[in-house]
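Late entry, written up from scratch paper. The run itself happened at the end of the previous shift, but nothing got recorded in the book at the time, so transcribing now.
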Amino acid sequence: MALKYQEVALNLADKIKAHEYDRKLPSEGKLMEEYSVSRNTIRNALNVLYNQGLLRRIQGSGYFINHPLHNQANIVNMANKNGLHDLEEKDAILSKILVFETILAGETIGSYLKIDPKDPVYHIKRIRRRKDELVSLEESFYRKDVVPYLTEEICNESISAFIKEHFQVTSKTADEYMSLHRLNEEEAELTGKDVGSSAFMIEEINCQKNEQPYNYSKTLYFLPDLTFYSHISNYLD
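Output as recorded:
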């Protein structure tokens, strides 16, 4: 169950997305009245939205809406862990399952997920499209001791939404590695691209609140105008 500040943050995020606030949020006092909560609850909610890059805060002036650079449509916010849902305002993203199986983790995946190589994991590979646009080729692995039940039908939809609803598993922290990747023969055949052509690759290890990893994924992105956004704070200098 979400805490009160999380509920407030989600509601404010929805309002920002719906352009109910175009430039600046109301004052803390007005938000306290609107949501009937304490100042600490409002500040915690605002901190969440700030850390996700939805807000800018100017000391003495309040919180302002952080508009995307160039007002570009195809932006994925890396901080909110919504995945490709950020791209679905235009059209729904549909999945085609290429591989759905249970396998032993093996040395590499076992080391990523902090489990024994002989422990079982779900292995999923899928292509994702938006209408006629190729969006991504995704390969992912889930620990079966954390996510005990998945089906191919579930994997056609949002896996993260399913495991959040049924197993209360959410990504609280993640390690993400971004690089330019050149397609091998299998990847080229699956996507209809040329061998050696480039794709933007993100590898990520998602962890629960206790910092235990439950998912490793490697995703190749192909939308030509896709932007990944991340808000960064430097507290060392």
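The CA atoms of residues 187 and 193 lie 8 Å apart.
(Scratch paper discarded after transcription.)
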